[in-house]
Write a structure and sequence with these properties.
Length: 89
């Protein structure tokens, strides 16, 4: 996969802190695959990963990582970056 992207935004909603790496509007399809959640949960319990596929591409890229809200914003940002590095390495 590509180089690990930088964090574009961090937003809190419902039970999760959404750490966005890429704009969802650039993707034709967005999914939350189980295999990525398995990797994410090794780093942050209950985390989920949203991946997207651009038009004309077979590559899936991380769009955002969802971290449980109780960890706090700074820790969520750090854990999301670690998850992205693990998946896109």
């Amino acid at each position: 996969m590509a180089d690990t992207p930088s964090v574009k935004s961090v937003e809190t909603a419902d039970d999760y802190i959404h750490v966005r790496f890429r704009d969802p509007d650039v993707f034709d399809t967005i999914r939350t695959p189980d295999w990525a959640a398995d990797v994410a949960r090794d780093i942050s319990n209950g985390a989920e990963v949203r991946t997207g596929k651009r038009s004309g591409s077979d590559e899936w890229e991380i769009q955002s990582v969802l971290i449980k809200k109780q960890v706090g914003t700074e820790k969520a940002r750090d854990e999301a970056k670690e998850i992205a590095q693990e998946i896109e390495a």
